[in-house]
Write a structure and sequence with these properties.
alpha/beta, 42% helix, Immunoglobulin-like, single chain
């Protein structure tokens, strides 16, 4: 299978990682480079075989020299997240391997070069969503198998093709064909065991000509929602079941519409007759429409202007596809249709208090901070109407996690996370409003709000900070403590488990979300959020200690929480203690404990506001 490293014609399994590293040490002058290359190869990224030095003592012939040069550039690409953002960088490495195959087809390096070309195009597709990249990957693997049928990589190439058709093209019949080819032509290969499993799962025991033609029921495109905020527009496609999809960007050449066109094809999906075009005209997206492209494919089209970037990904439970389009608005007025969509998306918002309509100045925040340390309940402060936008924290969005049919985590005595977060969120909103802040809640009652809508509410409101409130959970009842998260990638298993639970997905699929997040981090307010999280965590722990609670301080951590992605302001997620811990479950029901947490959050907001003031000066 493709997950192994080939050295001198032998397959090395994952458990032999250290032995592979020692082998590579003898070929590379840098032990670190050798080990990274070993890890990359064992992960199925790179094909290295019969590795010898490209430079140094001894003679080297041309294809060997070219192959090692390409391998080194592959290593550089794989270790640089920045280089992976640019398509040209991928294509240059691909071209190096292609030249080896084309110029030296009879060398032992030709099949290895083809295998790496297939892998590179396959990995590039996960970023580009261009069907041509996936097709180029299949072509490379097919060429390897057909022209080098006796090579040890031939069965791996067939398995790669089968996996592409099964997982990315959604064509299980074609995938089954390739799995059967492996069992027929390479029955003793290392790919055969998995091929045998998938052949059985896909009904391969029945001969294809006798297999009853049972069509899989088509999924249904249930509707499209649009949120328009700041310099981006979010489009959400709701589908009845999980589907295979692909996104594409085209210049408008076949009609009079300006700018570009983004279209997403959903395989095995039908469009209902009630789906009508949405006129957006927000300066980024002109119109969104859906139609039946063919009997088996639905197509959603976005007519866009001169956009900066876009991302496409999916969420589960229920399955929906998210398209975020980034751009700069040129003073375009939002149409009544979009206003109606925005109002629909924000139906769960709590009405703003009359006394908080104009917010606070930084001077007033500092004053409140001093007052708060002396008085348990600060009096409402007058509002400074002359401040400039961006010079103070005026508007805060509070997001009580879960709600409605989504209870979140449940404690040993049946306490639901959704109720805890709503109580703490409401208490926090009331205290902040009493101080003059403009506070918006994503929900003020027991209703379900999708994750993508919570962030959209914050962005549409032009909030200055965003706080999502949750209660932690663990399989161990002994786990306890309070922590604050900000958005970033992570390899910490505990943080990944928390993010997977809050994102309603698996840790495996969360890894795909991290790839998308890496592209977003260059524009996200990561640094500001990290400082904000630190201020909140420090003051919550300080407040709990002052009130006599010994709740462990689990510190500030980062993780890929979807509810924080694409937020245009510093954003954090608070895990307010473990509802699955019997002691902390009962603490979370005590008003005094909740008030202590809220007091700490308020102090953290005021401290962060003070730092903003100092930074601007």
């Amino acid at each position: 299978m493709s997950g192994g490293l080939t050295i001198n014609g032998r397959l090395v399994r994952e458990t032999d990682r250290h032995r592979v590293g020692r082998t590579l040490f003898s070929f590379f002058s840098s032990p670190l480079q050798a080990m990274v290359l070993a890890n990359a190869a064992l992960a199925g990224i790179l094909c290295l075989a019969a590795v010898t030095p490209a430079f140094g003592a001894g003679k080297t012939f041309v294809p060997e020299h070219l192959y090692h040069h390409a391998v080194q550039n592959y290593y550089i690409l794989n270790s640089s997240k920045q280089k992976q953002q640019y398509r040209d960088t991928w294509l240059r490495v691909i071209h190096e391997f292609e030249q080896i195959y084309k110029k030296y087809p009879r060398s032992r390096y030709a099949p290895r070069a083809l295998y790496n070309v297939g892998n590179l195009y396959n990995n590039l597709y996960t970023r580009s969503f261009l069907e041509k990249d996936l097709d180029a990957s299949v072509t490379a693997f097919t060429t390897l198998q057909q022209q080098y049928a006796k090579n040890t990589l031939s069965d791996d190439a067939l398995f790669k093709i089968a996996e592409i058709y099964r997982t990315k093209k959604g064509d299980t019949e074609t995938a089954l064909h390739f799995y059967k080819l492996i069992l027929r032509d390479y029955p003793d290969s290392n790919s055969a065991p998995m091929a045998r499993i998938w052949t059985a799962k896909l009904g391969g025991n029945v001969p294809p000509q006798k297999q009853p033609a049972v069509k899989k029921p088509l999924s249904v495109l249930n509707g499209i929602k649009v949120w328009s905020a700041g310099d981006y527009t979010r489009v959400v496609i709701n589908v009845s079941n999980e589907v295979v999809y692909s996104g594409h960007l085209l210049e408008q050449t076949d009609n009079a519409l300006p700018g570009k066109r983004i279209y997403v094809d959903l395989k095995g999906t039908m469009v209902t007759s009630g789906t009508t075009p949405l006129s957006v005209k927000d300066g980024i997206v002109e119109e969104v429409r859906a139609g039946q492209f063919n009997d088996n494919t639905a197509r959603v089209v976005l007519d866009v202007g001169n956009i900066d970037d876009y991302t496409i990904f999916n969420l589960e439970d229920p399955f929906r596809i998210i398209i975020d389009v980034k751009g700069k608005k040129a003073g375009t007025q939002i149409t009544p249709e979009v206003q109606g969509l925005q109002q629909t998306a924000a139906t769960a918002r709590q009405a703003r208090g009359k006394e908080s309509s104009k917010g606070l100045s930084i001077a007033k925040i500092i004053q409140d901070y001093e007052i708060f340390h002396k008085q348990p309940e600060p009096a409402a402060q007058p509002v400074n109407t002359g401040i400039q936008r961006g010079n103070s924290i005026r508007k805060i969005v509070i997001d009580p996690g879960h709600g409605g049919h989504d209870p979140g985590a449940t404690g040993p005595d049946g306490i639901k996370e959704k109720n805890i977060t709503l109580r703490i969120g409401t208490m926090l909103a009331d205290k902040l409003r009493s101080m003059g802040f403009d506070v918006i809640m994503t929900r003020d009652k027991d209703v379900f709000i999708p994750l993508e809508e919570r962030t959209a509410i914050a962005n549409m409101s032009n909030a200055d900070i965003f706080i999502s409130i949750h209660a932690n959970a663990s399989l161990s009842r002994r786990a306890k403590g309070i922590t604050t998260y900000y958005l970033s990638t992570t390899h910490d298993r505990a943080s990944m488990l928390v993010a997977a639970r809050e994102n309603a997905t698996s840790t495996k699929k969360l890894s795909d979300l991290q790839l998308i997040l890496e592209d977003l981090m260059k524009t996200a307010k990561i640094n500001e959020s990290a400082v904000f999280a630190s201020d909140i965590q420090h003051n919550m722990v300080r407040s709990l200690r002052k009130d006599g609670y010994s709740t462990p301080d689990l510190g500030v951590r980062s993780a890929p929480f979807f509810v924080l992605m694409h937020a245009n302001m510093p954003s954090i997620l608070i895990e307010t203690s473990f509802v699955t811990n019997p002691v902390e479950e009962h603490l979370l029901l005590q008003k005094r404990y909740e008030e202590s947490i809220v007091d700490g959050v308020v102090r953290g907001i005021l401290q962060y506001g003070t730092k903003m003031k100092m930074a601007e000066q």
